[in-house]
Amino acid sequence: MSKDALAERMERLGIHDFDLEETFARSSGPGGQNVNKVATAVTLRHRPSGISVTVQDSRSQAVNRKLARDRLLDAIETAQRKTSFDRDRKQRKSPAKKIPAASSFEEENFGIEAKAR
Description:
alpha+beta
């Protein structure tokens, strides 16, 4: 995904750069000396929603930063879809209609009317 497409996607979702908190740490796993010396793992957190992702797929910090933004936007879109789906489902769901029970007066009078006919 190009930088312009990523920026467009962030704008569409209403996410600004100042909403994001980015931290770096040393990755784990294979990578040799590079992993032990360079902080390539990226943790990206969206402050308003609290959604956070950590990426350490690549040995390059720049690649991991891009992947983290992409995955964070995926997670935010999924969360927004879920909340809108839940909201729509609540609006569509109508309460069950209760059939009013016959009052004792109606029950008593029903028997009298039937006899009168």
